[in-house]
């Protein structure tokens, strides 16, 4: 390819790129305006931003025809922060609950077997089976998204533990007590899965009755 053909091909590529960007001018205007109204973005040096966005921020153009994207972005931001806060609170409560269950189980049932971890895992499996029921997630009257995330990801996620279960199982095995190791694996997996099924079936019965 000679220099003339190279120049023609380059111009053709630029033209195609320009045509493909024409349809995004309206959306670009809305994004630019949103960034102009966001202090965290507006305060950034423009070399941190894409070239067309930095130019729009510097010139103040193009302007959107309405403020819908800004309101939507603010609503999404508030929803995300609320969900994160709910997960954090649920996680703290779940971790404290598991600690209390393990301490209580050690005092009542002894320390030879990890009864507390087993109980926490089984209860968590049962509750997740119930809370993940379709009616609670996307039914006619679903739970609030932040509340649901706080209960499932936060509370139950911290209440249950796979790492401690694995550590306890390996400890039994290394101590030569392979029967307790096998029993721990069977109890957590088999009883835990059964608890999930029972929770789902209870949800089916509850919401079928309420309907």
Verbal overview:
- This protein is mainly α and 211 residues long.
- Helix content is 80%, strand content 0%.
- It has 10 helices and no strands.
- It has helices spanning 3-22, 25-36, 39-42, 51-59, 68-109, 115-131, 134-138, 145-159, 163-174, 178-210.
- Helix 6 packs antiparallel against helix 8 (145-159), helix 6 (115-131) runs parallel beside helix 10 and helix 9 (163-174) packs antiparallel against helix 10.
- It starts with a helix and ends with a helix.
- The model is unreliable at 14-25, 44-50 and 59-68 (pLDDT under 50).
Distance between the amino and carboxyl termini: 73 Å
Low-confidence stretches: 14-25, 44-50, 59-68
Morphology call: globular
Structural class: mainly alpha
Major pleated sheet: none
> Would you count the extended β strands for me?
0
Order of helices and strands: HHHHHHHHHH
Q: How much is the average pLDDT?
A: 77
The Rg value, from CA coordinates, equals 28 Å
The helix content is: over 70%
Q: DSSP helix count? A: 10
Which strand-content bin applies to the residues?
under 5%
